[in-house]
Task: inverse folding
């Protein structure tokens, strides 16, 4: 289907989220909308899907102007949308989820499971999307759940499919599978509008890339454009995608793990006799596919999970099974994996979040009374130094974009005197500009002579940052390699190969 | 974020639009107004003269006006009695101002309202601090009763000069509340027992203990077989603010209440422990990751919250009853339960709670005056109270009814978030 947006303008109060945006998606085209978080991509898609009403501009389908009152209108006109956060009922089966809202029924309004199942089978055959109609959604991996969402959109005869950041939650293998699906759908004539800020996959899959910045279309380019050029268009200045690291003399052990065993929530061994030492002035990147014990290991180091046996030393001091408070005071900086759950109090101000783990420390408190002037001063200084984009230090942390929330955490952790610095998935969900910034800060910390442990499932990040790369698989360290090791070899270790030639 | 040059209107909302937005104060004000509207409807549909007058509106042309007049008179008389009985009677005030006499009668309603508001305010602050930490202390009433028992014991059994006796009695009350609050605190911290269940059940335990205490020799009034305690010494009493001869009951307890409000404001907004409490209440996981000791916070919250409830109980005892009996803070007098709704009404903020406690005390005192003057049952005050709390707890009802703009949704979050977690 040919979709044309003409001069779409959407304002929220005085803020213009979309400023006269025009773009055209040809039938069977994969059109990528590239832009940083907050550039206005999602707003534009919500306008196209009838969830928001634009102040100006019009939408044309096959040359005919249309007006959507709500998303139901959009669906009836053949537009399907897969949201970043899935809208599925976890305890229902795949078939039940797909037919939800348009259920085939037998007499007395009973759900016709047989027909629902058949419909799903036909759909998955037609589009080559392999799913088990009887599987319960919550038991399925994220990649399959997304496939169910796509099927659901297609079941309403969608001829334009909007995918909002579809790869954010997927593993590399699942991303490959998704790209295959997108190509097949496009070949069958479905138009695809695809939102992303990840340059690699955008170049891999798109036919046309439209770059949006601050609510405006900056340019439409071909996928042959280099990553560096795309990043520059997106951010508005040239960005370095590799991290500059000068050599630093490596010193003694700053964070040391000796034979550490940790169990997960179900009581199974998640970290199986792991030994690793991080020296001062080096970055050790712990790579591995999500779910191989890295999360548990990080929690154990931070004092949030019991160490079953073995020892953890911070600057030579045993911190095994100490409380988080004692470990923080001993000098561990920690950027947690789940920043909304563990890193921030979203309802509190940026200033309060910047002293979240040092509220009793001078100068932020004196004799049990908080010194708000010192807290504010600290916040102003850190917001300026770490370039946190916020309307003010009193704005709630929840009002910040993901990248700026992460900057708040990094700023907080790096502003304390540290022995070692540990960051879990430090750039997950961040845009290019923020990633570059966070990486620079991590390297600066290493250059200052701290030991740095980075836990990441992004191979690019691991290779860019790590002086040494430790790979974790099924709770064990399967190899510690140099940063010059090839991606393929690290990939093999991540897949469980015991040694690399 | 830059100013929108194409738009001719100022981007900053006018004062009226800002006022007419979803500010918590406006929401509470509208909730109270609606509460009185509902109260008026209840008066109308339950008042025989009003209903009779409406039955005859078709019989003659003027009947509708007389029906309207009777309705307005009845509702007006009820609310007038409520106001003059709880705040001030303008004609008495005029009399006092012009003659310089009768101040006692003029100020009695206000004095009564403040007398009721004092312990209620202290207990509500205790509940509010717990709410802010994500803890539901439903046991404030039991803690207050134990505070009354502790105060009565120290107030009646030791005999020292007032300068020691008064503070010792207050401290005994606080300790009584702390002891009762500590049990659910320890249970939650070390076993994960849900505080709602434990604190709720402890109300019954303490109510039973109260009967036991006032019937057992050390505390029972000598020579009595009733469930009544010894009377505390004069040196342990919170004396009336204007002297016994004034006839006004309002006591020095209001200074205790004001001190509690100031303390609570400092504690929640300025102290580092209070900051840790709030962090724990807003996001327990982040609190843990930030090195805040959850067990300590839970136990500390129950000590603060229970201590304040206990203080409320002993202030009530020291300023009005001067002893406890088997019915102390039982049933309708259960300020610990009212405190939960007052904390909700005040959005767990000390100053908000202060206004809430004053409103609830005025409704209670005024309701009694209304019952005496017009025969409309006191329960009308309870209906208004309940409706106000219902509306405050569901701000969406108010915003829908009055079509308020959503300027800062953030500030209008449900005060009871985290229930059952």
Result:
């Amino acid at each position: 289907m040919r979709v044309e947006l003409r001069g779409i303008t959407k304002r929220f109060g005085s803020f213009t989220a979309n400023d006269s945006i025009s773009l055209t998606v040809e039938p069977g085209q994969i059109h990528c909308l590239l832009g940083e978080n907050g550039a206005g991509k999602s707003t534009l898609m919500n306008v196209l899907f009838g969830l928001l009403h634009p102040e100006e501009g019009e939408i044309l389908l096959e040359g005919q102007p249309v007006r959507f009152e709500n998303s139901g209108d959009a669906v009836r006109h053949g537009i399907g949308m897969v949201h970043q956060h899935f809208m599925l009922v976890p305890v229902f089966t795949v078939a039940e989820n797909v037919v939800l809202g348009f259920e085939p029924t037998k007499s007395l309004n009973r759900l016709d499971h047989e027909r629902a199942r058949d419909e799903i089978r036909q759909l998955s055959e037609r589009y080559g999307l392999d799913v088990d109609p009887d599987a319960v959604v919550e038991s399925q991996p994220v990649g399959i759940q997304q496939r169910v969402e796509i099927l659901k959109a297609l079941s309403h005869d969608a001829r334009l499919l909007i995918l909002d950041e579809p790869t954010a939650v997927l593993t590399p293998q699942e991303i490959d599978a998704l790209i295959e699906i997108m190509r097949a759908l496009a070949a069958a004539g479905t138009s695809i509008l695809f939102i992303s800020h990840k340059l690699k996959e955008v170049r891999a899959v798109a036919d046309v890339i439209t770059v949006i910045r601050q609510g405006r279309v900056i340019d439409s380019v071909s996928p042959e454009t280099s990553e560096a050029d795309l990043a520059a268009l997106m951010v508005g200045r040239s960005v370095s995608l590799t991290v500059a690291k000068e050599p630093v003399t490596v010193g003694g052990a700053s964070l040391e793990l000796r034979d550490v065993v940790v169990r997960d929530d179900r009581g199974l061994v998640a970290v199986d006799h792991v030994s690793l030492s991080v020296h001062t002035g080096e970055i050790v990147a712990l790579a591995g596919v999500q779910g191989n014990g890295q999360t548990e290991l990080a929690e154990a180091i931070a004092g949030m999970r019991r160490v079953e046996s073995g020892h953890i030393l911070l600057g030579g001091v045993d911190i095994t099974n100490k409380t988080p408070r004692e470990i923080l005071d001993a000098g561990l900086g920690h950027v947690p994996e789940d920043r909304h759950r563990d890193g921030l109090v979203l309802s509190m101000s940026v200033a309060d979040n910047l002293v979240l783990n040092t509220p009793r420390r001078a100068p932020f408190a004196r004799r049990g009374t908080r010194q708000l002037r010192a807290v504010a001063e600290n916040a102003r200084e850190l917001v300026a130094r770490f370039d946190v984009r916020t309307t003010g230090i009193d704005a709630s942390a929840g009002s910040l974009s993901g990248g700026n929330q992460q900057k708040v955490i990094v700023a907080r952790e790096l502003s304390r005197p540290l022995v070692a610095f540990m960051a879990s998935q430090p750039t997950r969900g961040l845009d290019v500009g923020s990633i570059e910034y966070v990486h620079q800060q991590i390297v600066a910390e290493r250059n200052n002579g701290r030991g740095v442990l980075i836990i990441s499932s992004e191979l690019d990040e691991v290779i860019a940052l790590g002086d040494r790369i430790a790979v974790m698989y099924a709770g064990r360290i399967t190899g510690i390699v140099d940063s010059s090791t090839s991606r393929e070899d690290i990939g093999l270790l991540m897949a469980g190969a015991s040694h690399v030639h | 974020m830059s100013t929108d040059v194409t738009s001719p209107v100022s981007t900053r909302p006018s004062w009226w639009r800002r006022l007419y937005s979803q500010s918590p104060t406006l929401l509470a004000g509208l909730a109270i107004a609606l509460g009185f509207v509902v109260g008026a409807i209840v008066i109308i549909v339950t008042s025989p003269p009003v209903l009779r007058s409406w039955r005859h509106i078709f019989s003659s042309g003027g009947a509708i006006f007389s029906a309207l007049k009777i309705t307005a008179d009845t509702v007006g008389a009820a609310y007038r009695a409520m106001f003059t009985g709880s705040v001030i009677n303008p004609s008495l005030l005029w009399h006092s101002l012009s003659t310089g006499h009768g101040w006692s009668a003029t100020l009695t309603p206000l004095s009564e309202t403040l007398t009721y508001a004092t312990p209620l305010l202290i207990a509500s602050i205790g509940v509010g601090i717990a709410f802010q930490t994500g803890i539901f202390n439903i046991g404030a009433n039991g803690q207050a009763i134990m505070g009354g028992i502790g105060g009565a014991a120290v107030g009646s059994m030791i005999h020292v000069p007032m300068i020691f006796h008064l503070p010792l009695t207050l401290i005994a009350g606080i300790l009584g509340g702390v002891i009762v609050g500590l049990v659910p605190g320890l249970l939650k911290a070390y076993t994960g027992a849900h505080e709602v269940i434990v604190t709720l059940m402890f109300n019954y335990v303490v109510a039973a203990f109260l009967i036991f205490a006032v019937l057992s020799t050390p505390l029972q009034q000598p020579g009595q077989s009733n469930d009544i305690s010894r009377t505390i010494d004069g040196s342990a009493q919170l004396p009336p603010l204007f002297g016994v001869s004034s006839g006004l009951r309002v006591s020095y307890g209001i200074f205790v209440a004001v001190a509690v409000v100031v303390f609570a404001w400092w504690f929640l907004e300025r102290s580092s422990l209070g900051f840790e409490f709030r962090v724990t209440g807003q996001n327990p996981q982040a609190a843990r990751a930030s090195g805040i000791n959850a067990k300590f916070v839970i136990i500390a919250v129950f000590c603060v919250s229970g201590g304040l409830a206990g203080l409320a109980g002993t202030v009530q005892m020291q300023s009005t009853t001067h002893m406890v009996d088997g019915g102390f803070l039982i049933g309708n007098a259960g300020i610990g339960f009212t405190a939960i709704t007052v904390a909700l009404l005040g959005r767990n903020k000390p100053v908000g709670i202060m206004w809430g406690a004053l409103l609830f005390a005025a409704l209670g005192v005024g309701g009694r005056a209304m019952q005496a003057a017009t025969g409309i049952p006191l329960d009308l005050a309870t209906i208004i109270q309940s409706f106000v709390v219902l509306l405050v707890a569901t701000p969406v009802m108010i915003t829908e009814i009055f079509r308020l703009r959503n300027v800062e949704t953030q500030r209008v979050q449900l005060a009871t978030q985290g229930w059952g977690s």
